[in-house]
Amino acid sequence: MYRPIGIIHSPYREAAKTPIQPKYAPGIRAQIEIFPEYIEGLKDLNGFSHIYLIYHFHEASSPKLRVVPYLDEVERGIFSTRAPNRPNPIGISIVAVKAIEGNKIEVEGCDILDGTPLLDIKPYVERFDHIPDTNKGWHEHISEETAKRKGSRKENNP
Amino acid sequence: MYRPIGIIHSPYREAAKTPIQPKYAPGIRAQIEIFPEYIEGLKDLNGFSHIYLIYHFHEASSPKLRVVPYLDEVERGIFSTRAPNRPNPIGISIVAVKAIEGNKIEVEGCDILDGTPLLDIKPYVERFDHIPDTNKGWHEHISEETAKRKGSRKENNP
């Protein structure tokens, strides 16, 4: 049984208008509020330029094993996508740390809905986490231009 | 409330002898057993060379907010480390997919204890997940040679 360690405050209040990845939310700021009992665990985090936020997709609809990903037009297995309506609705985003003060972390590149419960933070460590020369499955046929245009969800914003 | 979607079968039966990251477990194979009711969600996963495994650190000791990371000699805030004894003991590993057959995924580069409950699988997508030019916090002063030597945990093996 996991319990939130904090809450993510972002400008996004509607799932359909929330960018699908931090990459497609450049410049978007969010504030991570860490509950006071966990502040001590933030020590040394300020040396890292990027962190993983691990959170609960609190507004995910009921799980589906096949979904049409936002970037694609074909039904795919849920585990080959980042869609929120997963058997265990756990989300992961890599965001840039701009400032840490007390129990607040200011981050940039936010693709997370306002009010999302935060479960964990881990440092992004390039030597662990950068895998060069990967095969990208169904992403291979999605151009970067399409990913950027659709992924920003700007079309859904007025 | 999350429920396991499968079980990770690996050669590692003792935490102290388990490599700290997939990178330091080159060539090590593991079998991921997916429970039958989730098999349909594996569709399209075989096109990706790498996946995130998201799992429950089932043998983690009680949470600590400061720990001495395995690679370091100084106490650090838990959220600046990948240590398992976190407030929510969720682990993340990026592993290479070697084969998917039925409800079995054969992966390579395994740093996960045998019997670990699997919570989620996500595709590793380089355009989302590779962050170049990062600051690496306390990792900056750990040489790659030291990381490799300590991270493999070979010293703990006979």
Q: Mind explaining what this structure looks like?
A:
Two copies of one chain form a homodimer. The first copy, chain A, has 158 residues and is mainly β. Chain A has one domain (6-125, 134-156): Elongation Factor Tu (Ef-tu), domain 3. Helices cover 8% and strands 29% of the residues of chain A. Chain A has helices at 126-129, 144-151; strands at 6-9, 29-34, 50-56, 66-67, 76-77, 90-101, 104-108, 116-123. In chain A, the strands form two sheets. Chain A has a six-stranded antiparallel beta barrel. In chain A, strands 4-5 form a two-stranded antiparallel ribbon. Chain A starts with 5 loop residues before the first strand and ends in a 7-residue tail after the last helix. The mean pLDDT of chain A is 93.
Write the layout of secondary structure elements.
Two copies of one chain form a homodimer.
Chain A: E1 6-9, E2 29-34, E3 50-56, E4 66-67, E5 76-77, E6 90-101, E7 104-108, E8 116-123, H1 126-129, H2 144-151
Antiparallel strand pairs in A: 1-2, 1-8, 2-7, 3-6, 3-8, 4-5, 6-7
